[in-house]
């Protein structure tokens, strides 16, 4: 009876095995040269590790069977302690495998560096010198993907395409939280982070429609954060670009701020025109009009900063709580002028300039002469060279 039940359980699992035959193992059968090299690296590494794992598993079963308690013919040697031959096998085999794995990993890490421009589009087919890569700017939003084509001056949501056998150069960032850009058929995943720009180089070698998605959990709408990547012929790609250009929608900064708001399961959207400086503004956290960009802030900090005048005025709000729908959050604050309060007031009232305290100490420099200073007469007061104001008569 027990054997019959076991056989019935085995037959019950057969439909599950049939379902697995319909799986698309795209990671092991990609359509891009970079993804194929990554697949080969995975397979080679797995085989090398199995050279140790399989013999250990087999020997475990053999030893357990041969030296079982009921086997009286197996030799029994309780005083055995060392075998030089066995030590050589135990240490030499893993050492050789580790050396091979290290060499493969080192070469793969450098040759498949996502920041490294491609030098081939397929095995034995180097990139032609006159071929320019297709530039695509990628922005991870909540919860959708924005693709900007700066040369074609178009933008799309949750869809992008590229010609077959043409290198693609990605510039990737995020609007709020960290995400992961991943098209398994094209290349490995790479992170998209707010305030930073990552790069990826890839190529598609077979025409078709492929799935892309976020491989890093980023909130409530994460499950719907996927898109379609299309590998097209040159003629089909030109037609696809013309279709996007035919859209009357424009993606400017105000339109982007609306698009940036969290939304789930967003359909494909096309923009016939796009602000050429939009991606740079997204990376530098200054899409809002009048907001100081991160690269400007870093330039000021590199020169010594603004001291107390810059405290709490120039923060980078990585979590856009107000724009992301939160009720409470920091009120946006912007730097109006780079000066003291007295200097700012004096700029509005030129008659008060002479009342500002002046530091008459000499300016020191490498070999520079001491600057001269001639006080200006004033009907209200006069100034001495050392900055002191004389008493009124």
Automatic annotation (TrEMBL):
Residues 19-116 form the Cytochrome oxidase subunit II transmembrane region profile domain. Keywords: Cell membrane, Electron transport, Lipoprotein, Membrane, Oxidoreductase, Palmitate, Respiratory chain, Signal, Transmembrane, Transmembrane helix, Transport. It comes from the Bacteria. CDD domains: CuRO_UO_II. It is a multi-pass membrane protein. One of its GO terms (cellular component) is plasma membrane. Residues 370-393 are annotated as: Disordered. Residues 131-243 form the Cytochrome oxidase subunit II copper A binding domain. It is found in: Cell membrane. One of its GO terms (molecular function) is cytochrome-c oxidase activity. The chain crosses the membrane at residues 41-67, 88-108. One of its GO terms (biological process) is ATP synthesis coupled electron transport. It holds the Pfam family COX_ARM. Belongs to the cytochrome c oxidase subunit 2 family. This is Ubiquinol oxidase polypeptide II. It comes from Chelatococcus asaccharovorans. The lineage of its organism: Bacteria, Pseudomonadati, Pseudomonadota, Alphaproteobacteria, Hyphomicrobiales.
